[in-house]
Design a protein that fits this description.
The complex is a heterodimer of chains A (about 425) and B (about 280).
Chain A: H1 11-26, H2 29-34, E1 38-45, H3 52-68, E2 73-75, E3 78-88, H4 93-105, E4 111-114, H5 118-131, E5 135-138, H6 142-146, E6 159-162, H7 166-178, E7 185-189, H8 194-199, H9 206-212, E8 216-218, H10 231-240, E9 244-249, H11 251-263, E10 270-275, H12 280-285, E11 294-297, H13 314-325, H14 332-349, H15 356-364, E12 367-370, E13 373-376, E14 385-386, E15 391-397, E16 403-409
Parallel strand pairs in A: 1-3, 1-4, 5-6, 6-14, 7-8, 7-9, 9-10
Antiparallel strand pairs in A: 2-3, 11-15, 12-13, 15-16
Helix pairs in contact in A: 3-14, 4-5, 14-15
Chain B: H1 2-31, H2 38-56, H3 60-86, H4 92-113, E1 129-132, E2 135-138, H5 139-161, H6 163-173, H7 175-180, H8 185-210, H9 219-232, H10 237-257, H11 262-276
Antiparallel strand pairs in B: 1-2
Helix pairs in contact in B: 1-5, 1-8, 1-9, 1-10, 2-3, 2-4, 2-8, 3-4, 3-8, 5-6, 5-10, 6-8, 9-10, 9-11, 10-11
The chains are: A alpha/beta (about 425), B mainly alpha (about 280).
Family (chain B): Belongs to the binding-protein-dependent transport system permease family. LivHM subfamily.
Protein name (chain B): Branched-chain amino acid ABC transporter permease
Keywords (chain B): Amino-acid transport, Cell membrane, Membrane, Transmembrane, Transmembrane helix, Transport
Chain lengths: ~425, ~280
């Protein structure tokens, strides 16, 4: 048995070689003349597929950092070239793992960045740990990246994650609902997938936290993603008279369910949904029904932080995005930017930015106030996790864009004052 | 009363599945093509419709009027340009061709419309409902089911009474014999696919009105359309309609037993039919 691909130079490697050669020649002469060393960064993001809305801000941040570092990165008195090798995970965890393996083994990257979503961060972090490449990830609740790898009782050597956790989003929801007059009955809509199972869990999920806060929980069993009929759940909520509807629902299911709720005459006073209301486009797609829906907020232009790279405020970053893309700002924007703030900071501090272990040591010692908050791995809930703030927000009719996200809950992370109080949803 | 309500909601949901299934049934019955890109064509037409609505401020009724000819044109080009080269005794080439088309369409749509979730605003109709003996029936599902019934009847009449219908049935029964009798099967195929995709133009508007569409959504409804076709009997237009209704009722009644079971029970009914009557309920073969 021989593997045909294992001998000789395949067409693909040849093409890659040619491409790399062309790239080298096309670089400004002064860079080539210096014959400086090149730090390679593997960047894997969901550019296509289900998770593509997350990939949009990744691509924007990548454009920015390439311009920002066009003249190289100065560290320890030397200038290094930065080569960012971007790959599209196609929203597919298997594909993400495969790409990460290639980047570690064939491209010999010094850092891996699985930019966003659980489906990319988890498999890429596994590869990063396996091949001993420092890995920096975000935009997935930390449990989703740590727990499936047996992180409950061990620390990892190479993979570092910054984001909030389930305990934070659950507490944020409870805080939001505590602040309004209701009959304290909550109907829960949860999908039958990894997220839904954790959210509905009877020890770490939403139900026990809500019962502890004095709410009654009505949780019909979980629905299949892309269900076309929610009449069973709606009947259960209607019979119980739930004033509050909560859960984790993706945009398509959320619109199907909300329209059917209106048809069936069920109109909860508060509707707070995770995941499905992150993006303004999803809220717009709800039509008039989107007004007054509430959700978690990871980042908004109102966050009181500045970029360490450009000294821009969140509002300035959002304005730049809106001017460039013509689209409303989205929550991952801050995280896509903060990712590069940390990378640049780490490379500047690393004893040898061409050495994976040295980069890792610098990463571990990070103490930086980024666009999304303070990043420091020494005081997180897990040695590989640095928590960032989460707030509660409500979508209201806006001026410039159809809907604006207004901050209504900041008790858990009092980094700013609420912009308004949570209002009853209109139907 | 709870179960009567479940059956009624199920029948209405079935109307939605029937809208997807009749075009698929037509293509399968005539050409033995399983169109994997069926769902992606729905999404493509829906996105075109949403863009037209946004640019020209048109209501859903006008969008349907525009999308049906666009769908017919896409279907005709698809058959003439691609599928006529792949159709034959062996079902594999057409399967691979439509699979490739599905991937190509998804990436094309992602480039043009980006990853955003979109929907069509069909006004207050969407949230209205009527009371039937204390059961609330949504107006939109009622319209969807009524349109499905009309489409099924209309397509049945076309197949039964027109010259095109005779040619189509002849080509479906025996392609070579039909060709010998002077039927231009390639032209018939192109017309059949044009009709199948034109119907999707209607389904696309309802899909965009009742939920959301995004470029990668196409595959999600494909399985239900396929199951409806199998339950009803491959190639039977009324079979596709009945199959859709049965699937809808199975799902909704199942979800009333336990909300997590709805889709599973739909699949089980499909498997039972496949085991007991593999040719489908309304098929004569």
């Amino acid at each position: 048995m021989t593997h045909p691909s294992s001998t000789g130079i395949s067409r693909r490697t040849a093409l890659k070689g040619i491409a790399a050669g062309t790239a080298l020649l096309s670089m400004p002469a002064y860079l080539r003349a210096q014959s400086s060393q090149t730090i390679k960064i593997g960047f894997i993001s969901p550019q296509t597929g289900q998770m593509a809305p997350f990939g949009e801000t990744d691509a924007f941040a990548l454009d920015f950092i390439r311009t920002h570092l066009a003249g190289g990165l100065e560290a320890g008195g030397k200038t290094y070239n930065i080569e960012i090798i971007e790959r599209d995970a196609q929203s597919n965890p298997n594909r993400a793992a495969e790409l990460a393996g290639e980047l570690c083994q064939n491209d010999n990257v010094h850092i891996l960045i699985p930019a966003s979503t659980t489906d990319v961060t988890l498999p890429v972090s596994e590869q990063g740990e396996l091949f001993e490449v420092p890995t920096l990830s975000s935009t997935a609740p930390w449990q989703a990246v740590i727990m499936p790898r047996g992180g409950a009782d061990q620390a990892f050597n190479w993979t570092y994650h910054f984001f909030w956790g389930l305990e934070d989003i659950i507490q944020t929801f409870v805080n939001m609902w505590n602040g309004v007059d209701s009959n304290k009955k909550v109907g829960l809509l949860l999908p039958r997938n990894a997220d839904g199972e954790v959210w509905g869990d009877d020890t770490i999920g939403l139900p026990p936290a809500m019962r502890a806060a004095g709410f009654e929980v009505i949780a019909p069993s979980k629905f299949e993603v892309r269900t076309n009929d929610f009449s069973a759940q709606i009947n259960a909520f209607k019979e119980a008279g739930c004033d509050i509807l909560g859960g984790l629902v993706f945009p398509a299911d959320l619109r199907t369910a909300t329209i059917q709720m209106a048809q069936q005459g069920y109109s909860p006073k508060i509707m707070t949904v995770a995941a499905g209301l992150l993006f303004p486009s999803a809220v717009e797609a709800m039509g008039a029904l989107g007004a007054g829906m509430s959700t978690e907020v990871w980042w908004t232009p109102a966050f009181p932080y500045k970029s360490t790279l450009t000294s821009e405020t969140g509002a300035e970053l959002a304005a730049k995005w809106e001017a460039t893309t013509g689209k409303q700002w989205t929550q991952p924007l801050g995280y896509s930017h903060a990712m590069w703030e940390i990378i640049v900071d780490v490379l500047k501090r690393a004893a040898d930015p061409m050495d994976r272990a040295a980069i890792r040591d610098a990463l571990k010692a990070t103490n930086l106030e980024t666009m999304v908050g303070k990043i420091n791995w020494s005081n997180g809930p897990h040695p590989n996790v640095s928590k960032t703030p989460i707030l509660g927000g409500q979508w209201r009719r806006g001026q410039k864009w159809p809907y604006d996200l207004v901050i209504v809950e900041t008790q858990l992370y009092p980094i700013m004052e609420p912009q308004s109080a949570l209002e009853m949803k209109t139907w | 009363m709870k179960w009567v309500d479940a059956v009624i909601q199920g029948l209405l949901l079935g109307g939605l599945y029937a809208q997807y299934a009749i075009g698929m049934s037509l293509m399968f019955g005539v050409m033995r093509i399983v169109n994997i890109a069926h769902g992606d064509l729905v999404v493509l037409l829906a996105l075109i419709g949403i863009s037209l609505a946004a640019v020209f401020g048109l209501g859903p009724g006008y969008i349907i009027l525009i999308l049906v000819p666009i769908g017919a044109l896409i279907g005709w080009i698809l058959q003439r340009g691609i599928l006529n080269w792949a159709v034959g005794e062996d079902p594999l080439p057409s399967l691979i061709a439509t699979f490739g088309l599905s991937l190509a369409l998804q990436n094309f749509m992602l480039t043009v419309w980006q990853a955003d979730t979109r929907s069509l605003d069909a006004g207050p109709l969407v949230v209205q409902s009527v009371d039937l003996w204390s059961i609330r029936v949504g107006v939109l599902p009622l319209v969807i089911c009524g349109v499905a019934l009309f489409l099924t009847w209309a397509l049945h009449m076309v197949l039964k009474t027109t010259k095109f219908g005779r040619g189509l049935r002849a080509a479906a029964a025996d392609k070579d014999a039909a060709t010998l009798c002077g039927v231009d099967t390639k032209a018939i195929y192109a017309q059949a696919t044009a009709i199948a995709v034109a119907v999707l133009g209607i389904a696309a508007v309802f899909q965009a009105a009742r939920t959301t569409v995004a470029p990668s959504d196409g595959g999600a409804q494909l399985i239900y359309a396929f199951e409806a076709v199998i339950i009803g009997g491959m190639g039977s237009i009324w079979g596709a309609f009945v199959g859709g209704l049965i699937l809808g009722v199975a799902q909704v009644v199942g979800s009333r037993i336990d909300p997590g079971w709805g889709i599973l029970i739909g699949h089980l009914v499909f498997l039972l039919v496949l085991a007991w009557r593999p040719q489908g309920l309304l098929s004569r073969h």
